[in-house]
Amino acid sequence: MSGPIQQESKPVIELKDVKVYHHARTGGLFRPNIVKAVDGVDFTISRGETVGIVGESGCGKSTLASVLVGLQPPTSGKVLFHGKPAIKRNATMRKEFGRSVSVVFQDPATALNPRMTIQDILTDPLQIHGIGNAASRAAKVKELLALVGLPHSAAEVTPSQVSGGQRQRVAIARALALDPDIIVADEPTSALDVSVRAQVLNLLSDLKKQLNLGMVFISHDIQTVRYVSDRICVMYFGKIVEQGTASQVFDNPSNDYTKKLLGAAPSLLHI
Ligand SMILES: Nc1ncnc2c1ncn2[C@@H]1O[C@H](COP(=O)(O)OP(=O)(O)OP(=O)(O)O)[C@@H](O)[C@H]1O
Ligand SMILES: [Mg+2]
Predict the structure, then answer these.
(1) What is the number of alpha carbons within 13 Å of residue 27 lying toward its C-beta?
(2) Ligand 1 atom closest to 66 (CA)
């Protein structure tokens, strides 16, 4: 293998034995008062691959996502960014991390500022990172809208004036504004009308290929995860209990919980 190719396959983010413990308010004499939201997870994500994380509600998927995007410091364990410890106090690294790793949340209605026009929403990350001038930012907004399949006229309206599926496209465009290496998508289609879920899913997987992004795709729906992922991690009570290629996990599940997940209700996507 030549140098640059090896470079590309190196993980952008690496988690080593990451734990996130919360003190729960329900704690009492007979119940443990510590919630092990993430309990000893090793994980890597590189450009060009989609890793699916699947598991039932409360198993720690969103907590793991917050660690991956730098929003949640782990209780213990290591977060490496391009092979180096991601240190919160280092402003340069924090900025670089923010540029390199972006996130798409479940509900675009709450993730996007309702008072801002879509133009401003997409310009905001460029301004914060001091990228370009007014003209180049306007050009970038045009490019982003085209990339996610929105008409240019969408720039002038606010998020509430477009449909739910279009709003999620805006959130995806915003996540792409800084040309990230990795996108973490936490249940990106769950809040959407069933009729537009497949479109948004296809958009994400097309963009990932087109831009050679790394994508962490989180869902409680194993069929959706299978559809987009190269590799799948099954989470259960804060741990990754099974991982492998989609076909390894589906054709030969080694873990009892995975077998149970596979036997659960069929996907609404019918794929
Ligand atoms: N700030 C917090 N304080 C206490 N407990 C928390 C906190 N954040 C998350 N938890 C708990 O950690 C566990 C994991 O939560 P998390 O949101 O990561 O699960 P999830 O897999 O994303 O679930 P869902 O599919 O419902 O989104 C849950 O038991 C949750 O109640
Ligand atoms: Mg969640």
Answers:
(1) 9
(2) 18
SS3 68: helix
Planar angle of CA 204, 207, 209, nearest 5 degrees: 110
- For residue 128, the enclosing domain spans 48-66+97-264
Number of domains in the chain: 1
Ligand nearest to the CA of 105: 2
C-alpha 16, offset from chain centre: 19
Who surrounds ion ligand 2 at CB < 5 A? 61-62
Domain of 126: which CATH number? 3.40.50.300
Residue 212 backbone phi and psi in degrees, to 5: 50, 45
270 in a domain, yes or no? no
Q: Tell me, yes or no, whether 142 lies in a domain.
A: yes
Q: Which value, in Å, is the radius of gyration of the alpha carbons in the chain?
A: 19
Q: At what angle do helices 164-176 and 118-128 cross, to 10 degrees?
A: 20
Distant-in-sequence, close-in-space partners of 33: CB < 8 Å, separation ≥ 6: 23, 24, 26, 27
State how far the Cα of 39 lies from the Cα of 42, in Å rounded to an integer: 10
Q: Higher-confidence residue: 252 or 181?
A: 181
Q: What is the pLDDT of residues 45-73, one digit of tens each?
A: 999 999 999 999 999 999 999 999 999 99
Q: Is the CB of 220 under 6 A from ligand 1?
A: yes
Lookup: tokens for 152: 């240019």
77 part of a folded domain: no
CA 59 to ligand 1 centroid distance, Å: 7
